[in-house]
């Protein structure tokens, strides 16, 4: 809303105008408003020169656009940011969700699996933090934690550090496809002591396995390199890392997914159940891969949103 205050010549007019303006501003504040702000995940290096900063690329895809008409994919991301969607104060449900877009660890599908999801859940009263993460560079990091995982853990810590200011009591994480692997891995690598362990995990058609026959080869190669050691493969095969005490999981997958087979979600769900970690797996007959908020109006894949909200409400 744009408010223009026009000058008035009389003292009485000025006083009345001032009181009216104050009343209007107070009324707006009392109604509250949703906000969207973007921040760097880490402080910018003041010594970085313009010609030393690699420029990421943006690809605009004309199909499968989101509610704003966008379907952008970011390539060569090297600078992590957080875009924070906060609900109106009177609608705040006290939960923050870090959203990790997919892209096979070779790109970031920032609109359909980031901003689109954030806008939807913001309207329902959730704080959503869209993570634009650095893409992995296994040749640079070696056996250390991949850059993408470093950023996801830091995003959870950031949300916890701002929880009081946001009116948030719990911080979870969500991701689709390779972003699902990234989100899921924070449950295994996160630590309660430093605030990086999520309170819940929601995964949409996630990459889970790093071993054939169900691995998504592109995600595995981009994350671990073309010839990872068996130990490295085991470390990032999430279904092989289930243990008691993990946060609850919510998984959604379509049976006809030819990109990331549904066995990824099934194997993780089975492994979690065996160690008594709460898990819900919703399977759809159709929907293929990358359906985001739903394949089409009325399609069964759109039902996960309501189921997820009910699941969240039932968490202790």
From TrEMBL:
Any one GO molecular-function label of the UniProt entry: hydrolase activity
InterPro entries: AB_hydrolase_3, AB_hydrolase_fold, GDXG_lipolytic_enzyme
Keywords: Hydrolase
Ranges of residues in domain Alpha/beta hydrolase fold-3: 102-292
Pfam families: Abhydrolase_3 (PF07859)
Superkingdom assignment: Bacteria
Record flagged with keyword ATP-binding: no
Listed name of the protein: Alpha/beta hydrolase fold-3 domain-containing protein
